[in-house]
Design a protein that fits this description.
The complex is a heterodimer of chains A (360) and B (314). Chain A is 68% helix and 1% strand. Chain A is mostly helical and 360 residues long. The two termini of chain A are 48 Å apart. Chain B is an all-alpha fold. In chain B, 44% of the residues are buried. The chains are: A mainly alpha (360), B mainly alpha (314).
Chain lengths: 360, 314
């Protein structure tokens, strides 16, 4: 009786179903077409174009339809920047700056965001809304605006120097945005260790940069940009953590309390494991964002600090569009390398943080 | 936060400890909130000062009722002392006047126009694609889903150069259309909508289908109106992302100052090198942020919900 009324048993229904499938397929294709075309033409195709041009010697000056516009040169661009060319030191300096930036920013913003979220989530806390708004507010505006705010805060006569000057009378104003001294160098110097006293081994060059320069640490100028990134992003990440915390049922904690678990034990054995997917997401966002840092560098970079603040992303832009001899092919090669680095970093952190999500 | 107390002494020790921790925690929150708010307050205050005052006395933040102009009748700049007194300062609107005489009003229009255009297209294209991926069986559905997911991994920097080339070939470099079409759909929005549509019970559509409605009618008349929360999140992200977009504007619109958006315009107002015109830059920053701030305070709940949405999505 019931079988007769289901679609399976009814020839008319089968035909209807087939027709329905056909019209669904047509509707489906027409629905995805606009977005699929945009993504293909402006995301996927460009990636392939960048890959292709990274194997050519096209500087971008000759029009593409010119018969001798460019030729394929294989891995020459990669060799020139990564292995044995004239620009190897520029590339690895940008790599060094970017790594300091990533390693300095991502853990700090993640830990701060988590701590803030845990405190805001406490049941006894009042005015949760105020704190959430205050923390989130800086991330509504443009990275360019934030960069200008920091340019102003850290300027020679700006508020940071004014506050420090008021706190200690002997304070010499620091030129934050133009200071190339590495933080680790400054730390070593305060311990009495300088390049001259430490021994000749630090002058050994790795990838055209000597060891002493590799271990410089982020420069004062780069550190202000790192502070800026942390200042802007922590609030957003906190809101993400807070949402995840609110999704943990309170019965879990109540059960733990009955078993006599301390607050710390609850945090360590319940909260952190349950937040693992969120942490994975937050760290992935952080890695992808920081490895590509560009806007802030564009604003806060200046002639004096090129060596210690140029990021890989800025190097791509600079190589392609600025300077004396712009070269689109070489810039594409650097961009592809950055893509690979970000890809590897994301996979590595999947190992370490171990988010068990199908999606990144 | 009831705890099991085995002895009264350990109980009182623990409650004392807990209280100390709570005070420290609130101190941490308040301290962080101050760090987040103070720069914004100082930025607004200093946008109403003349250059001399900004560079020598950046800290005063309470405006006095009387205003000043930065130059006297003979064209000489006033000194910081004439403007600033303790925590008080006499505001000046010269910075604002100067940038409003620049191309800034045009940039405000450009930013609003580009953000709205991109957001509308994304609402349409992303929700259509999201619905198709969620509900419609068509050849390549599954593969397309993974391709869309994969495009989220492509860093924007890699796209800078080829997009520039592509738009140049198409004759769309330094045009509104060029900027709009490049950003007219985004993987994040498609996945957000797909996920939302999957949460709508199928029965709703099946009922409509029995009544003879086709997929287009079902989508636009029935499903889409139900998707308001997801569409709101998409609107906020699309609008905010494009209002603040610098990199794409730099590459696509960088050749024509008439087409600049506000972030790109600000970098021009800055002046060159280290000689920053702070009154202009800060006033420009305030004007750039103001519309987003108003939208944020009106739709705050949706901002937070939208962000949470992304977090849950993982």
């Amino acid at each position: 009786m019931s079988a007769a009324t289901t679609a399976a048993g009814n020839p008319v229904a089968i035909q209807d179903q087939a027709q329905q499938n056909r019209s669904d397929a047509f509707a489906g294709l027409s629905f995805v077409a606009p977005a699929a075309i945009v993504l293909f033409v402006f995301l996927i195709l460009p990636l392939l174009v960048a890959l292709y041009f990274s194997f050519t010697n096209w500087s971008g000056t000759r029009p593409l339809d010119h018969p001798e516009a460019y030729e394929v040169v294989g891995l020459k661009n990669y060799d020139r920047w990564l292995v044995s060319g004239r620009r190897v030191d520029d590339f690895y300096r940008a790599i060094r700056n970017t790594l300091y930036y990533v390693i300095g920013v991502v853990p700090v913003q993640t830990v701060f965001a988590l701590l803030l979220a845990v405190v805001v989530n406490q049941r006894w806390l009042t005015r949760k809304g105020f704190f959430r708004t205050a923390f989130y507010f800086p991330s509504i505006t443009s990275s360019i605006v934030v960069s200008f705010i920091f340019l102003f805060l850290f300027s020679a006569g700006g508020p940071i120097n004014a506050v420090l000057g008021a706190l200690s009378p002997n304070y010499e104003p620091v030129a934050w945005t133009t200071n190339n001294d590495g933080l680790f160098h400054l730390l070593l110097e305060s311990l009495g260790i300088t390049e001259d006293t430490v021994g000749a081994w630090v002058e050994t060059e790795i990838m055209d940069i000597d060891i002493w320069e590799w271990i410089a640490g982020p420069s004062v100028a780069l550190s202000t940009i790192m502070a800026l990134a942390i200042w802007t992003t922590t609030g957003t990440l906190m809101v993400i953590y807070l949402a995840a915390l609110q999704g943990i049922p309170s019965s879990v904690y109540e059960a733990a309390e009955v078993d006599g678990a301390t607050n710390w034990a609850q945090f360590r054995h319940i909260t952190l494991p349950l937040l693992k997917p969120t942490t994975f997401f937050v760290v992935t966002l952080g890695l992808i964002g920081t490895f590509q840092v560009f806007d802030q560098i564009y604003v806060l970079q200046n002639d004096q600090t090129g060596r210690t603040t140029t990021s890989v992303a800025y190097l791509v832009y600079n190589t392609a569009f600025e300077g004396n001899s712009p070269n689109l092919a070489e810039a594409s090669a650097i961009a592809i390398v950055l893509f690979v680095i970000i890809f590897i970093a994301t996979i590595l952190q999947r190992r370490f943080v171990g988010g068990d999500r199908a999606e990144e | 936060m009831a705890s099991l107390a085995f002895t009264s002494q350990s109980h009182s020790m623990r409650s004392l400890l807990r209280r100390v921790l709570a005070v420290m925690a609130v101190g941490f929150l308040v301290g962080f909130a101050l760090i987040q708010i103070t720069p914004c307050v100082l930025t607004i205050a200093n946008s109403f000062k003349c250059d001399a005052a900004v560079e020598n006395r950046p800290m005063p933040f309470i405006p006095l009722p009387e205003t000043v102009t930065c130059r006297d009748e003979t064209g000489v700049f006033i000194s910081a002392d004439e403007q600033v007194d303790g925590f008080f300062f006499r505001p000046s609107v010269d910075g604002y006047r100067k940038i409003l005489e620049s191309q800034l009003p045009r940039w405000v229009f450009n930013t609003a126009f580009l953000s709205i255009a991109v957001t509308i297209l994304r609402l349409v294209f992303d929700s259509m694609a999201g619905y198709a991926l969620a509900r419609l069986k068509f050849p390549g559905n599954r593969a397309l889903f993974f391709v869309v997911l994969g495009t989220m991994m492509i860093p924007g920097v890699v796209l800078l150069i080829p997009r520039f080339l592509l738009l140049k070939q198409l004759g769309l470099l330094n045009t509104y259309q060029g900027y709009i079409i490049v950003l007219a759909a985004d993987a994040f929005g498609i996945l957000l909508m797909k996920q939302f549509f999957e949460s709508i019970p199928r029965e709703v559509e099946e009922a409509a289908m029995v009544d003879g409605a086709n997929r287009y009618v079902i989508f636009f008349r029935i499903v889409l109106p139900m998707a308001t929360p997801a569409l709101t999140a998409l609107t906020i992200f699309g609008f905010q992302g494009n209002w603040n977009n610098f990199m794409d504007a730099l590459i696509i619109l960088g050749g024509d100052t008439d087409l600049y958006n506000l972030p790109l315009g600000l970098t021009v107002l800055r002046g060159s090198g280290l000689d920053v015109q702070y009154d202009l830059v800060l006033a420009g920053s305030v004007i750039t942020t103001l519309p987003m701030a108003v939208i944020f305070f009106i739709f705050q709940r949706y901002f937070v919900e939208g962000i949470s949405y992304t977090g849950l999505k993982g």
